[in-house]
Amino acid sequence: MISPRYLLNRRRCLQIGGAGVVGSCLPSALQGAMPLSGSTGFSGNGGTPRAKSVILVLLSGGPSQLDTLDPKPDAPAEVRGEFKSIQTTIAGAGVCEHLPRLARMTNEWSIVRTLAHVEHNHLLATHVALTGRPTPLPRGGSDLDRVESRNDFPNVAAALDFVKPRTDGIPSGVSLPNYLIEGPLTWPGQHAGFLGTRHDPWQINHDPNEPTFKVDSLSLPGDMTGNRLVSRRELLNHLNDSDPVLGKDTRAKAFVEQQDVAFSLLTSARVANAFRIDTETDQTRSRYGRNKFGQSLLLSRRLAEAGVPIIQATMGIVQTWDTHVDNWGRLKNVLLPQLDQGLEALITDLSASGLLQDTMVIVMGEFGRTPRVSTLPGQTVPGRDHWAHAYSALFAGGGVRGGQVLGQTDAIAAYPVSRSWSPADVCTTLFSALGVHPEASVDDPLGRKNYLMNGDVIEPLFTGAEATESQVTLR
Question: Are 342 and 289 a contacting pair, CB within 8 Å?
Fold first, then answer.
């Protein structure tokens, strides 16, 4: 006898009805998603935290190190590019002329000039940047073979949620203001991978600069009071607990887990208030810049104030900083001024409130750009291509010592000549700052143990003692 795939009875109808309010409030990335079957594990928790939150400012597409944080004013024109270098508050250290606000406040920042890895493809490099490791399965030669998969490793926010789960309604991770998707391509490294949907960061796909900005997922229907919501949850929990099917059906279990996430978010006033960006004064909003970049950084600050441990602010869509064409025009006219203004306001506010000591800010792309200027076939305006052998990043807060430059590249910013640091080191530093135990691990679907801290903590960020190793390694 063939059994129906779905058996509906009175209990099932009540469960579906009770879940309706909750399901409609789920972020779109959670609705309908299913976890990958397979075991996961955890060992180790309880490190000493340096920070309560990390704001990861992701410059998707990969900004040029030469045209931002590692200028080479004495290099040939075909390397140097069109921008001049200006002096910072750090003796002997310059940055691009279109980052004047940053140059005036580098006493708050550590500039790392020797990040390096071996992935020159956007999708694969993004997975490396957000998870600290290469994709677990060999990828084909086409970008269509490199898209997001539930076989991927969990990103930093998802891994944190797994090893240090929260029960206070505060999500472990929030990513904004857009998911990295272009046509049929979805960038890997953005969700929990093999850990399943329960641990996916909460994704916001709205522009906080829009006058109508509102996160509908945090709003109850007009006739739904808080007491009614609690009553419905109690009834739903009773039905779920008494249904033996839910313990065996992975799809049903995933939906119950999503219900739990949704209930927590709906009952967390701190999270809901954090998204009320309209309560900020016009003066404050203008300081950040009335654009998607600036308002995303303002919203990130508010989420850090609410206690969200990891906030990813993606400065642009998938290839915003991918300046193969018109590198200097795009940087000069839009990208650098908006980033410069937004970062100044963010660090100023965090410092003034005392929150900077508890909030680490990391600014980086998935890689850098080629040292030599090039022009794509069929184009007339030059730019720079992908380059992962050396690129730069900014670190501040959470115990980071400002006013220093870590690492040195060669005369054309092509390769490190001092110790290089990998994305694994960046992720390890992030986990360490948030108090994750050095032995914390997750088991992949094949049962293999994977330590979250698979790199080295970038100790000079905190000690001020520059690494002197001459051996350069690419991880």
Answer: yes
Give the chain's mean pLDDT: 85
Side chain identity at residue 17, one-letter code = G
**Mean predicted confidence (pLDDT) in 248-259:** 56
**Which CB contacts under 8 angstroms, 24+ apart, belong to 355-359?**
355/301, 355/304, 355/305, 356/108, 356/396, 356/397, 357/397, 357/398, 357/399, 358/51, 358/52, 358/53, 358/397, 358/398, 359/51, 359/52, 359/53, 359/54, 359/55, 359/304, 359/397, 359/398
- Per-residue pLDDT tens over the stretch 404-442: 999 999 999 999 999 999 999 999 999 999 999 999 999
Give yes or no for a contact between 347 and 396, defined as CB atoms under 8 angstroms apart.
Answer: yes
- CB contact set of 329 (below 8 Å; sequence gap of 6+): 381
Q: Which tokens is 439 given?
A: 């032995």
Domains and CATH numbers, the chain: 9-38+218-274 (no CATH), 49-215+277-463 (3.40.720.10)
| pLDDT surpasses 70 at 466 | no
240-252 residue pLDDT tens: 666 666 555 555 5
Q: Which two tokens stand for residue 374?
A: 């090039």
